[in-house]
Design goal:
This protein is 24% helix and 18% strand. The protein is built from four helices and six strands. The chain has a six-stranded mixed sheet. A hairpin with a 6-residue loop joins strand 5 and strand 6. Helix 1 packs parallel to helix 2.
Length: 188
Amino acid sequence: MDALTLFIIRHAEKPGDSWPGPGFTADGVSDTESLVLRGWERAGAWTTLFGTDLTGGDYAKPDAIYAATPGTTANQPPSSRPAETISALAARRGLTPNESFGKGDEPRLVPAVLALKGVVLLCWEHKAIISDILPLIPVSKGTPPTKWEGSRFDVVLRFDRAKGDDKFAFKELFPKLLSGDSDKPLGG
């Protein structure tokens, strides 16, 4: 297998009890399925972290970016949050994000991503990350979380596969990009 570094982040902050205000699109149109102001701030922070030469070491520029296709689950409104979270990063890197997989498509998504090489960033919904994505990633070192608290938007999950290996080394990263961000591991 080829060498692969896979970063997994949760979409940025959404309307709810933790963050006041309505969600709104990049054009400023009120939308309950879009990011709140704090979420747009986080999207900009992810762009700086993954899209510039300001940081190195644990954070690399992605060669490919994946985000859940908005509106793909029958019983839920079409959330735009994953795509909004990575839109500025994709633009800065000159990449077209792959949004051809929706929530519920994780059994097809994970093998497609694991077949890649280089650096890949995946932005998804936290519950599906825990229940439907992480169990499909073979890990030989480190222990991925089994819970993701609903109030946490500040964590990066990093998986590294060396050339010729078929399993990943895992580590949880805490860039602390915005005020109030934590350095505590996710639950589980």
